[in-house]
Amino acid sequence: MVRLIPRDExxxxxxxxxxxxxxEASRKLESMLSTYDRLHERVAEIQALEKQGDVVDREVxxxxxRSFVTPFDREDIxxxxxxxxxxxxxxxxxxxxxxxxxxxRPSEEAKEMAGILAAQAVQLLEALxxxxxxxxxxxxxxTVHDLEHKADGISRAAIGRLFEAGSDPLEVIKLRDIYRSLxxxxxxxxxxxxxxxxxxxxx
Length: 203
Prior knowledge:
mainly alpha; Methane Monooxygenase Hydroxylase, Chain G, domain 1; disordered N terminus; single chain
């Protein structure tokens, strides 16, 4: 029998899966900076997770193309998918930077920011898991925002200290890039949370 009207595709399972991948990747980054060993192996694990995220992202796009009815605005589905993908890309880029720059050891600020990112991932996954019901989500989103503000303060202070007298200019550039990569990734997680807030406001 020919389906005249494309079916109502569900997207919640895909967003939850992406949230799970982000949480795993962020924890791997946090662990990598904590132990700082087997860097190539650890980065390869994160790269594999990013590829899994790409597969899910492509499926979101495919479902959008064949869906006549969507659970919420198509633009919001697309934007949420983009920001979640940005988080995974940022985790991978940050991990790779430590190898590319041959960083001998991560700074305490970088470790702390990686921990904040992992904490955001926990809250983001909780929010995505509850998105279909649309209840009890706001506290998770608020925590994502609070963590982003905390990371901003750490990043600003850390970058400020880099330019104190006597700092090696090359090391300044390396660390500044790492802090910015972490901050951009944390910002992407907040961007995803803001899309979820917008979705809830429309329901």
